[in-house]
Each structure stands twice: as C-alpha cells, then as structure tokens.
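Q: What residues go here?
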C-alpha cells in the first residue's frame, strides 16, 4: 500500500526533496521550506490514501479529495494556499513552488522503483490529484496576495478604473500562472489546476459585463453622480 510506503520512507523522501530543492534555491532557505512543507504534505497525503482505501468513493476530475472542510477545500489545498502566500512573502516565485511539488512526486516514484514497491493505478491517481489540488491553491494564493479593493468599494472614478485594471491584471496573472504550472508537466488540464485556468478565463471574459456597469462618472465636488437638467 502506498500509504505504508510513505510512512516507512518519510525521512528518505524529505531528504530527497531537500536535495532537489537545493539545486534551485539557496540551500538554507530550501531546507527550511522543505522541512515545513513536505512533511505536512506527506502526512496529509498518507491520510487521504488510507481513507480512500476504505471507500470506493472518488472525487470527480478537478475536485478535491474525500477529506474536505466546510469550504470545500481539502486539507492539502488549504495548507498549499497558506504556504503559497508565505513563499511569496519569502521571495519565492511560483515556478519554484510548482517544482517543489514535482520533487515530491519524483521522489516517491523513484524510490518506489528502487524498492520495487508497487503503486496501484488508483493510488497514483490520488497522488496526482493531491499534487494538482495543492498546485491550484498555491497558484490562487500567489496571485491573490496583495489584492486591492474591488471596483464596488472604490469611491472616485479614478479609483474605480484603477480597481478594474487591477482585477483584470489579477485574473490574467492567475491564468498565466496556471498555464505555467500545467506546462511543467507536473499536472494536467483535466485536474484542479486546469479547472482553475478555465474558471479564470471565464471570469476574465465576463469582467467587462460584471464590472463596467459599477463604474460611474461622479461629480468632483460632491462625489455623487451628476444630475441631468430637465
């Protein structure tokens, strides 16, 4: 069982992920990040695999695993979102975060081959789905950090136009980052990251229809919409 393999090889997997990350970023920084992120991901993945072993229920494509919170996110998704925001604060870029999750997948599959440990197709799908969900939530966290007020919260015309432009940039950023994550090959279009990309493009397409009506020219002196003379 994959969850037993992860439990017995936890330290070796963390070691391999740390080594892989150290080839891309400063070693002390990568070690601190790996030591906080990878053990928790492995723990959550192990729990999901163990739970899914006891049921035939599986989430649909693009959905989280059976371990969901009240907001519909998996524990892995919530953790990835928090860590994504923290990595951004520390100066990481999204490529490094995506590659970090790729390192986990590579470490698991490589070590399993070395030990001739079997991984069933169902377990491998669960692994890929968890990685996909984590990457999708990390992308959202990266692109949502520092978001400005919405158009409806802005007061002046200039503020509303600036807020509209910022919202447009945010959506373009999410779409670009989602595509970049998919392009690495770690995740595919059919999963959560692909669903995030599609949803973002739909949001971007409907943005003018949703937001432009909220932008109203206001009288500079009163801040109210000017009245027309009868």
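A:
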């Amino acid at each position: 069982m994959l969850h037993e393999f992860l439990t017995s090889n936890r330290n070796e997997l963390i070691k391999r992920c740390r080594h892989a990350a150290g080839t891309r970023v400063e070693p002390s920084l990568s070690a601190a990040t790996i030591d906080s992120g990878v053990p928790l991901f492995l723990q959550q993945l192990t729990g999901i695999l163990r739970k899914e072993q006891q049921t035939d229920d599986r989430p649909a494509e693009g959905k989280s695993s059976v371990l969901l919170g009240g907001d519909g996110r998996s524990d892995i998704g919530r953790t990835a979102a928090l860590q994504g925001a923290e990595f951004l604060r520390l100066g990481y870029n999204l490529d490094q975060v995506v590659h970090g999750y790729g390192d986990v997948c590579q470490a698991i599959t490589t070590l399993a081959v070395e030990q001739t440990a079997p991984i069933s197709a169902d377990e491998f799908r669960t692994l890929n789905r968890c990685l996909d969900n984590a990457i999708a939530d990390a992308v959202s966290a990266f692109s949502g950090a520092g978001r400005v007020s919405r158009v409806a919260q802005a007061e002046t015309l200039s503020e509303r136009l600036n807020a509209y432009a910022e919202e447009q940039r945010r959506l373009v950023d999410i779409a670009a980052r989602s595509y970049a994550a998919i392009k690495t090959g770690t995740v595919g279009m059919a999963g959560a990251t692909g669903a995030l990309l599609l949803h973002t493009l739909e949001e971007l397409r409907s943005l003018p229809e949703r937001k432009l009506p909220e932008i109203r020219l206001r009288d500079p002196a009163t801040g109210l919409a000017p009245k027309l003379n009868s």
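A: Context that may help when evaluating the design: Confidence is low (pLDDT under 50) at residues 64-72, 218-222, 224-230. The chain has two domains: 2-135, 151-214.
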